[in-house]
Write a structure and sequence with these properties.
By secondary structure, the protein is of the alpha+beta class. The chain has 13 helices and 14 strands. The chain has a seven-stranded antiparallel sheet with strand order 2-1-14-13-12-11-10, with helices on both faces. A three-stranded antiparallel sheet has the order 3-9-6, with helices on one face. Strand 4 and strand 5 form a beta hairpin. The protein is globular. The chain starts with 5 loop residues before the first helix and ends in a 7-residue tail after the last helix.
């Protein structure tokens, strides 16, 4: 369900009456403190990048249990499913380099064969059932490939319709660990983390590098309607679907490298963000670990992150404008309840405030 806040309302009013007095960056940033307060977020970090340079850099609130350590550029967060953008980019690059073949069957890994024996008959809705009001087709093992998993086309007839299946996507990391010469963490480091010197990123609890990331981690909280309640830290290790702990500025390094040719050529980037087709011939809304959406004439490329009752994140690119929004929180408040069968980032009230400030969806830039 979309959350409404005084922030989004005030920005809409400002856009109508004060746009000439403030830049888009000033307009957006001016409401972030109210947004944090209204959404009961202890620690909130927000960046807006234009052509790779930060024009909004806001670190709000506190990042410890006692409210004594202010949120800063060093504050780190569990990014949940934003990890999928790094996973998808890594596997795309490894496929382009000939190191991994995305058309190999998932069944080459014993782990996948074990999943196939258990998952279809489990009571997990992602195996077929109602997920947030959306009926998932049954999951049956019919020779899915890595490419179909990274494109979220595994329910029903593999390789056809898009349904967001995070549990299956997580198996990509296990597949690499079991079948490939180097493990998944090493693969991600080789293609993304090391070349970009992402030294404020830790790839799971068992990562042997960058331990300082945990010392700056904002602890997770849940607002129970009356007060903020501290939650247990996520202790999942690094896998395809989640596991990265990082600062927003380290994600900005990744974002900049996507656009300036450091990681991919322009042709490769366009190929990575070109979706496969659904069964009816329409383009999917997911490709290589990225959500894709056309919003009122604007091309959006994004991923959200949601660790229930703990963390949330938004990573949104508007490629034709050279704009990127990055937001991390140590509650689930950034999550807007996106349906598992479509891309609807515009339902986020923080994203709507961003759109209002920057006139996104209002015609050509």
């Amino acid at each position: 369900m979309m959350r409404h806040s005084a922030f989004a309302t005030s920005l809409a009013l400002m856009a109508g009456g004060l746009a000439c007095a403030q830049t888009p960056a000033q307009m957006f940033e001016s409401g972030l403190a109210e947004y944090r307060r209204a959404h009961q977020i202890p620690s909130l970090s927000v960046l807006v990048l234009r052509d790779g340079e930060a024009e909004v850099e806001a670190y709000l609130g506190w990042s410890d249990d006692e409210g004594e350590v202010a949120t800063s550029a060093d504050t780190t967060y569990f990014t949940a499913s934003v990890t999928k953008t790094v996973t998808g980019t890594t596997l795309f690059l490894a496929d382009q380099a000939g190191e991994i073949d995305l058309d190999r069957p998932m069944a080459d890994a014993e782990d996948w064969r074990g999943l196939c024996e258990w998952f279809p008959d489990s009571d997990i809705p992602l195996a077929g059932g109602d997920v947030g009001g959306v009926m998932f087709p049954d999951f049956t093992c019919q020779g899915q490939t890595l490419r179909q998993v990274v494109n979220m086309q595994v329910n029903g007839e593999p390789g056809t319709d898009f349904y967001y299946n995070a549990l299956v996507f997580a198996r990509l990391g296990r597949w690499v660990d079991e079948v490939h010469e180097r493990d998944f963490r090493a693969l991600v480091r080789a293609y993304v983390l090391n070349p970009l010197e992402m030294t404020d990123t830790m790839a799971g609890w068992r990562d042997t590098r960058n331990y300082h990331v945990l010392s700056h981690l904002a602890p997770p909280f849940l607002f129970d309607g009356e007060r903020l309640v501290k939650q247990a830290f996520p202790d999942d290790d690094f896998r395809g679907a989640a596991g990265l702990y990082m600062t927003p500025m380290d994600l900005a390094r990744f974002d900049r490298a996507l656009d300036d040719g450091t990681l991919l050529t322009e042709a490769q980037r366009q190929a990575m963000w070109t979706p496969p087709s659904n069964a009816d011939g329409t383009p999917s809304e997911y490709a290589n670990g990225w959500f894709l959406q056309d919003y009122q004439g604007e091309r959006l490329v994004f991923h959200s992150g949601w660790q229930p009752e703990a963390y949330s994140a938004i990573y949104l690119k508007v490629p034709e404008r050279g704009l990127t929004l990055i937001a991390f929180a140590n509650t689930e408040s950034l999550w807007w309840g996106n349906r598992p069968d479509r891309s609807e980032v515009h339902r986020s009230d923080l994203v709507q405030a961003f759109f209002t400030a920057y006139d996104i969806g209002q015609g050509a830039p």
